[in-house]
Amino acid sequence: MAYDQISKFKNLHEGRNVFILASGPSLAESDLSLLRKRIVIGLNRSSLIFPDTHYHCTMDERLFVEYEEVLRKTRFLFTLPGRPFGIPINFLGSEGFSFDLEEGVYSAYTVSYLALQVAVYMGFKKIFYVGLDLKHDRGQTHFFGKDHVSDNHERTEFPKMVRMLEHSAKVLSGTDVKVYNCSPVSTLECFEHVRLEWAVDQPALCQSAT
């Protein structure tokens, strides 16, 4: 899909709620059955635990090789240019925040940030992160166990991710978009912490069937 075709997603879900599935260890302890009738954006390998997502985001080229079959099954896969398949979005750089996917996105060192920009562009007004821990748990780096590539992320990558997610919170504070964090163990404080059970009961601003 060419960049100009990304406009088809603009405000597609205006006023709706969305859940973004990150990959932290707490995701394995979350009752994801609650999301079966909700709009969900999956990230990276979240399809291993919740395969029926509406959208998916992956930047890591390694995952296109290791999980090609899984990723090809997703309805709409948003990614960056140069990946073997999916919907490429122009890469603007590492730090910033984009409200317009036609111009591009910022990576901010984490696919969870890419998904946030996608969700805002599509018009979602209440955005709930699930599994956005930004910390390891007893040697486990992800909900599925341990990925050796992520061993040092608490020291190297998570601080950068936190800084950029804090930046996004400041940017969005002047809008009608509200972001929540459903992780019970997350170190991230810039988004209001809520329970997943509470989140799924929140009414959308728009009750259309879109």
List the helices and strands and how they pair.
Blueprint: E1 17-21, E2 40-43, E3 55-57, H1 61-66, H2 68-72, E4 77-79, E5 87-88, E6 91-93, E7 105-106, H3 111-121, E8 126-130, H4 153-156, H5 158-172, E9 178-181, E10 192-193, H6 196-199
Structural summary, described in words:
The chain has six helices and ten strands. The chain is an alpha/beta fold and 210 residues long. It has a single domain, classed as sialyltransferase cstii, chain A (Alpha-Beta Complex). The protein is globular and about 40 Å long. The chain starts with 16 loop residues before the first strand and ends in an 11-residue tail after the last helix.
CATH architecture, by name, is: Alpha-Beta Complex
Largest pleated sheet: 8 strands, parallel
Kindly report the spatial arrangement of strands forming the biggest sheet: 5-4-3-2-1-8-9-10
User: What is the approximate shape?
Assistant: globular
The fold-level CATH name is: sialyltransferase cstii, chain A
Approximate strand percentage = 15-25%
- Give the fraction of residues assigned to helices: 10-25%
